[in-house]
Amino acid sequence: MDEEYDVIVLGTGLKECILSGLLSVDGLKVLHMDRNDYYGGESTSLNLIQLWKRFRGNDKPPAVLGPSRDYNVDMIPKFMMANGTLVRVLIHTDVTKYLSFKAVDGGYVFNKGKVHKVPATDMEALKSPLMGLFEKRRARKFFIYVQDYSESDPKTHGGLDLTRVTTRELIAKYGLDDNTVDFIGHALALHRDDRYLDEPALDTVKRMKLYAESLARFQGGSPYIYPLYGLGELPQAFARLSAVYGGTYMLNKPECKVEFNEEGQVCGVTSEGETAKCKKVVCDPSYLPNKVRKIGKVARAIAIMSHPIPNTDESHSVQVILPQKQLGRKSDMYLFCCSYSHNVAPKGKFIAFVSTEAESDHPEMELKPGIDLLGPVDEIFFDTYDRFAPVNEPSLDNCFISTSYDATTHFESTVLDVISMYKMITGKDVDLSVDLNAASAAEEY
Protein backbone atom coordinates (compact mmCIF):
# COMPACT_ATOMS: atom_id res chain seq x y z
CA MET A 1 0.00 0.00 0.00
CA ASP A 2 2.71 2.50 -0.89
CA GLU A 3 0.40 4.50 -3.12
CA GLU A 4 -0.97 7.86 -2.01
CA TYR A 5 -4.66 8.55 -2.52
CA ASP A 6 -6.50 11.86 -2.75
CA VAL A 7 -9.28 10.47 -0.58
CA ILE A 8 -9.80 7.31 1.47
CA VAL A 9 -13.47 6.54 2.13
CA LEU A 10 -14.27 4.35 5.16
CA GLY A 11 -17.61 2.54 5.30
CA THR A 12 -19.91 1.57 2.44
CA GLY A 13 -23.08 3.23 3.68
CA LEU A 14 -25.09 5.00 1.00
CA LYS A 15 -23.69 8.46 1.82
CA GLU A 16 -20.09 7.23 1.62
CA CYS A 17 -20.74 5.36 -1.65
CA ILE A 18 -22.39 8.37 -3.31
CA LEU A 19 -19.41 10.55 -2.32
CA SER A 20 -16.93 7.96 -3.49
CA GLY A 21 -18.73 7.83 -6.87
CA LEU A 22 -18.90 11.62 -7.26
CA LEU A 23 -15.23 12.10 -6.30
CA SER A 24 -14.09 9.32 -8.66
CA VAL A 25 -16.05 10.89 -11.53
CA ASP A 26 -14.19 14.14 -10.71
CA GLY A 27 -10.91 12.34 -11.38
CA LEU A 28 -9.75 12.03 -7.75
CA LYS A 29 -7.85 8.91 -6.75
CA VAL A 30 -10.16 7.12 -4.29
CA LEU A 31 -9.59 4.09 -2.05
CA HIS A 32 -12.76 2.75 -0.41
CA MET A 33 -12.48 0.42 2.61
CA ASP A 34 -15.00 -1.21 4.93
CA ARG A 35 -14.62 -3.42 8.01
CA ASN A 36 -17.69 -5.40 6.86
CA ASP A 37 -17.68 -8.01 4.11
CA TYR A 38 -20.83 -6.56 2.49
CA TYR A 39 -21.87 -3.26 0.93
CA GLY A 40 -24.25 -0.81 2.54
CA GLY A 41 -22.96 -0.43 6.11
CA GLU A 42 -25.88 0.79 8.24
CA SER A 43 -28.00 1.20 5.09
CA THR A 44 -27.71 -2.40 3.89
CA SER A 45 -30.61 -4.74 2.99
CA LEU A 46 -30.80 -8.16 4.68
CA ASN A 47 -32.25 -11.48 3.55
CA LEU A 48 -34.39 -13.45 5.97
CA ILE A 49 -31.56 -15.54 7.46
CA GLN A 50 -29.44 -12.39 8.04
CA LEU A 51 -32.47 -10.66 9.60
CA TRP A 52 -33.00 -13.60 11.99
CA LYS A 53 -29.31 -13.68 12.92
CA ARG A 54 -29.29 -9.97 13.66
CA PHE A 55 -32.47 -9.80 15.76
CA ARG A 56 -33.08 -13.34 17.05
CA GLY A 57 -29.52 -14.63 17.32
CA ASN A 58 -30.12 -17.74 15.19
CA ASP A 59 -30.48 -18.46 11.48
CA LYS A 60 -33.68 -20.49 11.46
CA PRO A 61 -36.57 -18.34 10.24
CA PRO A 62 -39.90 -20.22 10.00
CA ALA A 63 -40.36 -21.93 6.61
CA VAL A 64 -43.87 -20.48 6.29
CA LEU A 65 -42.33 -17.05 5.48
CA GLY A 66 -40.91 -18.36 2.19
CA PRO A 67 -37.35 -18.45 0.79
CA SER A 68 -34.75 -16.31 2.61
CA ARG A 69 -33.23 -15.07 -0.66
CA ASP A 70 -36.56 -13.53 -1.74
CA TYR A 71 -36.28 -10.97 1.08
CA ASN A 72 -34.40 -7.66 0.89
CA VAL A 73 -35.20 -5.91 4.16
CA ASP A 74 -33.77 -2.38 4.35
CA MET A 75 -32.14 -1.38 7.61
CA ILE A 76 -32.65 2.33 6.79
CA PRO A 77 -35.94 2.27 4.84
CA LYS A 78 -36.44 5.35 2.63
CA PHE A 79 -38.27 6.27 -0.56
CA MET A 80 -36.97 8.79 -3.12
CA MET A 81 -38.82 11.85 -4.31
CA ALA A 82 -39.26 11.31 -8.06
CA ASN A 83 -38.07 14.86 -8.76
CA GLY A 84 -35.80 15.07 -5.75
CA THR A 85 -32.09 15.60 -5.26
CA LEU A 86 -31.11 11.92 -5.10
CA VAL A 87 -32.73 11.20 -8.47
CA ARG A 88 -30.81 14.18 -9.90
CA VAL A 89 -27.56 12.76 -8.49
CA LEU A 90 -28.39 9.33 -9.98
CA ILE A 91 -29.01 10.83 -13.42
CA HIS A 92 -26.03 13.20 -13.22
CA THR A 93 -23.69 10.25 -12.52
CA ASP A 94 -25.49 7.85 -14.89
CA VAL A 95 -25.87 5.34 -12.04
CA THR A 96 -29.43 4.75 -13.27
CA LYS A 97 -28.06 2.22 -15.75
CA TYR A 98 -27.32 -0.15 -12.85
CA LEU A 99 -30.75 0.19 -11.23
CA SER A 100 -34.46 -0.23 -11.93
CA PHE A 101 -37.09 1.81 -10.13
CA LYS A 102 -40.80 1.59 -9.68
CA ALA A 103 -43.26 4.21 -8.49
CA VAL A 104 -44.65 3.91 -4.95
CA ASP A 105 -48.44 3.47 -4.79
CA GLY A 106 -49.46 6.02 -2.19
CA GLY A 107 -48.65 8.85 0.21
CA TYR A 108 -50.90 9.09 3.28
CA VAL A 109 -51.22 11.10 6.47
CA PHE A 110 -52.62 10.17 9.89
CA ASN A 111 -55.27 12.61 11.11
CA LYS A 112 -57.72 12.35 14.02
CA GLY A 113 -57.14 8.61 14.36
CA LYS A 114 -57.57 7.79 10.65
CA VAL A 115 -55.32 7.36 7.61
CA HIS A 116 -56.06 9.66 4.63
CA LYS A 117 -54.57 10.11 1.16
CA VAL A 118 -52.39 13.25 1.08
CA PRO A 119 -53.96 15.89 -1.20
CA ALA A 120 -51.12 17.53 -3.14
CA THR A 121 -52.91 19.70 -5.71
CA ASP A 122 -55.82 22.15 -5.70
CA MET A 123 -58.04 19.49 -7.34
CA GLU A 124 -57.15 16.80 -4.78
CA ALA A 125 -57.74 19.29 -1.97
CA LEU A 126 -61.35 19.71 -3.14
CA LYS A 127 -61.97 15.96 -2.86
CA SER A 128 -60.15 15.31 0.42
CA PRO A 129 -62.15 14.17 3.50
CA LEU A 130 -59.41 15.83 5.60
CA MET A 131 -61.19 19.20 5.30
CA GLY A 132 -64.67 20.67 5.44
CA LEU A 133 -66.14 22.58 2.50
CA PHE A 134 -65.00 26.10 3.45
CA GLU A 135 -61.57 24.90 4.50
CA LYS A 136 -61.21 23.17 1.10
CA ARG A 137 -61.75 26.47 -0.68
CA ARG A 138 -59.17 28.22 1.47
CA ALA A 139 -56.68 25.35 0.98
CA ARG A 140 -57.28 25.38 -2.77
CA LYS A 141 -56.36 29.09 -2.93
CA PHE A 142 -53.18 28.40 -0.97
CA PHE A 143 -52.24 25.46 -3.24
CA ILE A 144 -52.76 27.63 -6.33
CA TYR A 145 -50.50 30.32 -4.84
CA VAL A 146 -47.78 27.69 -4.24
CA GLN A 147 -48.20 26.09 -7.70
CA ASP A 148 -47.93 29.47 -9.44
CA TYR A 149 -45.08 30.79 -7.27
CA SER A 150 -41.81 31.33 -9.14
CA GLU A 151 -38.78 32.71 -7.31
CA SER A 152 -37.63 34.63 -10.38
CA ASP A 153 -41.02 36.20 -11.17
CA PRO A 154 -42.12 38.82 -8.60
CA LYS A 155 -45.60 38.93 -10.22
CA THR A 156 -46.26 35.48 -8.65
CA HIS A 157 -45.20 36.53 -5.13
CA GLY A 158 -48.50 38.17 -4.15
CA GLY A 159 -46.57 41.12 -2.73
CA LEU A 160 -44.80 38.88 -0.18
CA ASP A 161 -41.06 38.43 0.34
CA LEU A 162 -40.92 34.76 1.33
CA THR A 163 -37.33 35.09 2.54
CA ARG A 164 -38.72 37.36 5.30
CA VAL A 165 -42.31 36.21 5.83
CA THR A 166 -42.53 33.14 8.10
CA THR A 167 -44.54 30.07 7.13
CA ARG A 168 -46.89 30.82 10.01
CA GLU A 169 -47.57 34.31 8.60
CA LEU A 170 -48.06 33.03 5.05
CA ILE A 171 -50.53 30.36 6.18
CA ALA A 172 -52.39 32.88 8.39
CA LYS A 173 -53.02 34.96 5.26
CA TYR A 174 -55.14 32.05 3.91
CA GLY A 175 -56.86 31.38 7.25
CA LEU A 176 -56.08 27.65 7.26
CA ASP A 177 -56.89 25.65 10.39
CA ASP A 178 -54.40 23.66 12.46
CA ASN A 179 -55.35 20.31 10.91
CA THR A 180 -54.67 21.58 7.39
CA VAL A 181 -51.41 23.19 8.50
CA ASP A 182 -50.43 19.83 10.01
CA PHE A 183 -50.68 17.83 6.80
CA ILE A 184 -49.25 20.63 4.62
CA GLY A 185 -46.18 21.03 6.85
CA HIS A 186 -45.52 17.36 7.58
CA ALA A 187 -46.99 15.28 4.74
CA LEU A 188 -46.32 17.66 1.80
CA ALA A 189 -43.38 19.83 2.87
CA LEU A 190 -41.97 16.86 4.85
CA HIS A 191 -40.81 18.90 7.85
CA ARG A 192 -39.89 16.69 10.79
CA ASP A 193 -41.24 18.96 13.54
CA ASP A 194 -42.99 22.34 13.88
CA ARG A 195 -39.93 24.62 13.96
CA TYR A 196 -40.49 25.45 10.27
CA LEU A 197 -43.55 27.58 11.19
CA ASP A 198 -41.30 30.35 12.47
CA GLU A 199 -38.74 30.09 9.67
CA PRO A 200 -38.89 31.86 6.24
CA ALA A 201 -41.77 30.50 4.14
CA LEU A 202 -39.66 30.11 0.97
CA ASP A 203 -38.28 26.73 2.12
CA THR A 204 -41.79 25.33 2.76
CA VAL A 205 -43.10 26.60 -0.60
CA LYS A 206 -40.12 25.00 -2.41
CA ARG A 207 -40.70 21.71 -0.57
CA MET A 208 -44.41 21.73 -1.50
CA LYS A 209 -43.51 22.42 -5.14
CA LEU A 210 -41.04 19.50 -5.10
CA TYR A 211 -43.81 17.23 -3.80
CA ALA A 212 -46.23 18.36 -6.54
CA GLU A 213 -43.57 18.11 -9.30
CA SER A 214 -42.60 14.61 -8.11
CA LEU A 215 -46.24 13.58 -8.09
CA ALA A 216 -46.68 14.85 -11.64
CA ARG A 217 -43.71 12.80 -12.94
CA PHE A 218 -45.69 9.53 -12.97
CA GLN A 219 -49.39 10.23 -12.92
CA GLY A 220 -49.33 7.84 -9.96
CA GLY A 221 -50.63 7.92 -6.44
CA SER A 222 -47.47 9.22 -4.76
CA PRO A 223 -44.39 11.39 -5.43
CA TYR A 224 -42.03 8.55 -4.44
CA ILE A 225 -40.03 5.92 -6.30
CA TYR A 226 -38.08 2.99 -4.90
CA PRO A 227 -35.49 0.60 -6.41
CA LEU A 228 -36.41 -2.99 -7.24
CA TYR A 229 -34.68 -5.38 -4.80
CA GLY A 230 -34.41 -2.70 -2.08
CA LEU A 231 -32.04 0.06 -1.12
CA GLY A 232 -29.04 -2.27 -0.80
CA GLU A 233 -28.80 -1.89 -4.59
CA LEU A 234 -27.90 1.82 -4.31
CA PRO A 235 -24.51 1.63 -2.50
CA GLN A 236 -23.45 -1.16 -4.89
CA ALA A 237 -24.43 0.92 -7.92
CA PHE A 238 -22.30 3.86 -6.71
CA ALA A 239 -19.46 1.45 -5.88
CA ARG A 240 -19.59 0.23 -9.48
CA LEU A 241 -19.53 3.82 -10.71
CA SER A 242 -16.46 4.57 -8.58
CA ALA A 243 -14.70 1.45 -9.90
CA VAL A 244 -15.43 2.45 -13.53
CA TYR A 245 -13.62 5.73 -12.82
CA GLY A 246 -10.62 4.04 -11.19
CA GLY A 247 -11.74 3.85 -7.54
CA THR A 248 -10.35 0.88 -5.55
CA TYR A 249 -12.56 -1.14 -3.17
CA MET A 250 -11.44 -3.28 -0.24
CA LEU A 251 -14.09 -4.99 1.92
CA ASN A 252 -13.51 -7.00 5.09
CA LYS A 253 -10.64 -4.75 6.29
CA PRO A 254 -10.57 -4.97 10.11
CA GLU A 255 -9.59 -2.09 12.42
CA CYS A 256 -9.30 0.69 9.84
CA LYS A 257 -7.33 3.16 11.99
CA VAL A 258 -7.11 6.76 10.80
CA GLU A 259 -3.56 8.15 11.16
CA PHE A 260 -2.73 11.82 11.87
CA ASN A 261 0.49 13.87 11.52
CA GLU A 262 1.92 16.28 14.15
CA GLU A 263 -0.39 19.07 12.97
CA GLY A 264 -3.43 16.87 13.64
CA GLN A 265 -4.18 16.42 9.94
CA VAL A 266 -5.13 13.05 8.51
CA CYS A 267 -2.24 11.37 6.65
CA GLY A 268 -3.40 7.78 6.09
CA VAL A 269 -5.36 4.72 7.20
CA THR A 270 -3.84 1.56 8.69
CA SER A 271 -5.41 -1.89 8.43
CA GLU A 272 -3.73 -5.28 9.05
CA GLY A 273 -0.35 -3.62 9.58
CA GLU A 274 -0.34 -1.73 6.27
CA THR A 275 -0.87 2.01 5.91
CA ALA A 276 -2.34 3.67 2.85
CA LYS A 277 -1.44 7.36 2.62
CA CYS A 278 -4.04 9.99 1.80
CA LYS A 279 -4.82 13.71 1.92
CA LYS A 280 -8.44 13.41 3.08
CA VAL A 281 -10.68 10.86 4.80
CA VAL A 282 -14.45 10.49 4.34
CA CYS A 283 -16.22 8.18 6.80
CA ASP A 284 -19.34 7.40 8.82
CA PRO A 285 -19.35 8.30 12.55
CA SER A 286 -18.30 4.80 13.67
CA TYR A 287 -14.77 5.20 12.24
CA LEU A 288 -13.92 8.39 14.21
CA PRO A 289 -15.98 8.14 17.42
CA ASN A 290 -13.90 10.83 19.18
CA LYS A 291 -14.87 13.43 16.54
CA VAL A 292 -18.67 13.06 16.78
CA ARG A 293 -21.40 13.69 19.36
CA LYS A 294 -24.69 11.93 19.95
CA ILE A 295 -27.63 13.97 18.61
CA GLY A 296 -30.51 11.55 19.12
CA LYS A 297 -31.78 8.04 18.77
CA VAL A 298 -34.04 6.33 16.22
CA ALA A 299 -36.58 3.71 17.29
CA ARG A 300 -37.86 1.36 14.62
CA ALA A 301 -40.13 -1.66 14.27
CA ILE A 302 -39.81 -4.04 11.30
CA ALA A 303 -42.88 -6.17 10.56
CA ILE A 304 -43.44 -8.99 8.07
CA MET A 305 -47.12 -9.23 7.08
CA SER A 306 -49.37 -11.11 4.67
CA HIS A 307 -51.52 -8.11 3.69
CA PRO A 308 -51.17 -4.41 2.76
CA ILE A 309 -51.57 -1.73 5.43
CA PRO A 310 -55.33 -1.29 6.07
CA ASN A 311 -57.06 1.87 4.75
CA THR A 312 -54.42 2.56 2.08
CA ASP A 313 -56.46 1.39 -0.95
CA GLU A 314 -54.67 -1.99 -0.98
CA SER A 315 -51.38 -0.19 -1.77
CA HIS A 316 -48.42 -2.56 -2.20
CA SER A 317 -45.99 0.26 -1.37
CA VAL A 318 -46.90 3.25 0.74
CA GLN A 319 -45.72 5.96 3.12
CA VAL A 320 -47.90 7.15 6.00
CA ILE A 321 -46.77 10.18 7.99
CA LEU A 322 -48.06 10.56 11.55
CA PRO A 323 -47.52 14.25 12.45
CA GLN A 324 -46.20 14.94 15.96
CA LYS A 325 -49.28 16.94 17.03
CA GLN A 326 -51.61 14.04 16.21
CA LEU A 327 -49.62 11.86 18.63
CA GLY A 328 -48.75 14.44 21.29
CA ARG A 329 -45.03 14.01 20.51
CA LYS A 330 -42.06 16.27 19.74
CA SER A 331 -41.34 14.63 16.37
CA ASP A 332 -43.19 12.82 13.59
CA MET A 333 -43.58 9.07 13.16
CA TYR A 334 -43.20 7.38 9.76
CA LEU A 335 -44.76 4.23 8.39
CA PHE A 336 -43.13 2.68 5.33
CA CYS A 337 -44.41 -0.42 3.53
CA CYS A 338 -43.15 -2.26 0.47
CA SER A 339 -43.75 -5.77 -0.83
CA TYR A 340 -43.21 -8.39 -3.50
CA SER A 341 -44.18 -5.75 -6.10
CA HIS A 342 -40.73 -4.16 -5.52
CA ASN A 343 -39.04 -7.59 -5.23
CA VAL A 344 -38.23 -7.21 -1.54
CA ALA A 345 -40.36 -10.16 -0.32
CA PRO A 346 -41.91 -13.35 -1.73
CA LYS A 347 -45.33 -13.14 -3.38
CA GLY A 348 -48.08 -12.26 -0.93
CA LYS A 349 -45.68 -10.87 1.71
CA PHE A 350 -45.35 -7.24 2.83
CA ILE A 351 -42.60 -5.57 4.87
CA ALA A 352 -43.61 -2.59 7.02
CA PHE A 353 -41.42 -0.29 9.10
CA VAL A 354 -42.48 2.14 11.80
CA SER A 355 -39.77 4.73 12.60
CA THR A 356 -39.45 7.76 14.83
CA GLU A 357 -36.92 9.84 16.73
CA ALA A 358 -36.91 8.07 20.11
CA GLU A 359 -38.13 10.23 22.99
CA SER A 360 -37.97 7.53 25.70
CA ASP A 361 -36.20 4.26 26.46
CA HIS A 362 -39.26 2.18 25.51
CA PRO A 363 -39.36 1.91 21.71
CA GLU A 364 -42.13 -0.72 21.75
CA MET A 365 -44.45 1.64 23.66
CA GLU A 366 -43.39 4.68 21.64
CA LEU A 367 -44.01 3.03 18.27
CA LYS A 368 -47.44 1.72 19.27
CA PRO A 369 -49.52 4.36 17.36
CA GLY A 370 -47.79 3.32 14.11
CA ILE A 371 -47.86 -0.42 14.87
CA ASP A 372 -51.61 -0.20 15.62
CA LEU A 373 -52.18 0.84 11.97
CA LEU A 374 -50.53 -2.32 10.57
CA GLY A 375 -53.22 -4.88 11.35
CA PRO A 376 -52.07 -8.47 12.11
CA VAL A 377 -48.34 -9.16 11.67
CA ASP A 378 -46.54 -12.47 11.03
CA GLU A 379 -43.33 -11.36 12.76
CA ILE A 380 -42.11 -8.11 14.34
CA PHE A 381 -38.62 -6.93 15.34
CA PHE A 382 -37.60 -3.84 17.33
CA ASP A 383 -34.43 -1.87 16.75
CA THR A 384 -32.90 1.33 18.14
CA TYR A 385 -29.71 3.08 17.14
CA ASP A 386 -27.97 6.26 18.25
CA ARG A 387 -27.56 9.14 15.81
CA PHE A 388 -24.27 11.04 15.65
CA ALA A 389 -23.09 14.26 14.00
CA PRO A 390 -19.51 15.46 13.46
CA VAL A 391 -17.99 18.04 15.84
CA ASN A 392 -14.59 18.35 14.12
CA GLU A 393 -13.41 21.18 11.86
CA PRO A 394 -12.72 19.52 8.46
CA SER A 395 -10.62 22.47 7.25
CA LEU A 396 -8.13 21.69 10.07
CA ASP A 397 -7.99 17.86 10.14
CA ASN A 398 -9.24 16.95 6.61
CA CYS A 399 -11.76 14.45 8.06
CA PHE A 400 -15.23 14.58 6.50
CA ILE A 401 -17.73 12.67 8.62
CA SER A 402 -21.33 12.00 7.62
CA THR A 403 -24.28 12.45 10.00
CA SER A 404 -26.22 9.30 11.01
CA TYR A 405 -29.44 8.50 9.14
CA ASP A 406 -32.59 10.04 10.60
CA ALA A 407 -36.04 8.48 11.07
CA THR A 408 -37.56 9.99 7.91
CA THR A 409 -38.72 7.57 5.21
CA HIS A 410 -37.57 9.73 2.30
CA PHE A 411 -34.09 10.70 1.15
CA GLU A 412 -34.09 14.50 1.04
CA SER A 413 -32.15 15.07 4.31
CA THR A 414 -29.66 12.28 3.46
CA VAL A 415 -28.72 13.75 0.09
CA LEU A 416 -28.37 17.30 1.42
CA ASP A 417 -25.73 15.97 3.85
CA VAL A 418 -23.85 14.34 0.94
CA ILE A 419 -23.98 17.50 -1.18
CA SER A 420 -22.70 19.68 1.65
CA MET A 421 -19.84 17.21 2.33
CA TYR A 422 -18.97 17.18 -1.40
CA LYS A 423 -18.75 20.98 -1.37
CA MET A 424 -16.49 20.95 1.72
CA ILE A 425 -14.19 18.37 0.10
CA THR A 426 -13.97 19.85 -3.41
CA GLY A 427 -14.93 23.49 -2.89
CA LYS A 428 -17.61 23.26 -5.59
CA ASP A 429 -21.28 22.37 -5.95
CA VAL A 430 -22.51 19.13 -7.52
CA ASP A 431 -23.91 19.99 -10.93
CA LEU A 432 -27.52 18.84 -10.69
CA SER A 433 -28.88 20.87 -13.59
CA VAL A 434 -30.15 17.80 -15.40
CA ASP A 435 -33.31 17.97 -17.47
CA LEU A 436 -35.25 15.23 -15.76
CA ASN A 437 -37.81 15.00 -18.53
CA ALA A 438 -35.17 14.50 -21.18
CA ALA A 439 -33.24 11.99 -19.08
CA SER A 440 -33.69 8.55 -20.53
CA ALA A 441 -33.62 7.13 -17.01
CA ALA A 442 -37.08 8.51 -16.46
CA GLU A 443 -38.38 6.07 -19.06
CA GLU A 444 -37.22 3.12 -17.01
CA TYR A 445 -39.12 3.92 -13.82
From TrEMBL:
GO BP field: protein transport; small GTPase-mediated signal transduction; vesicle-mediated transport
Record lineage: Eukaryota, Viridiplantae, Streptophyta, Embryophyta, Tracheophyta
Gene Ontology CC terms, in alphabetical order: cytoplasm
UniProt-recorded name of the protein: Guanosine nucleotide diphosphate dissociation inhibitor
Family of the protein in this entry: Belongs to the Rab GDI family.
Native source organism of the sequence: Iris pallida (Sweet iris)
Any one Pfam family match given in the protein's UniProt record, by short name: GDI
Single Gene Ontology MF annotation: Rab GDP-dissociation inhibitor activity
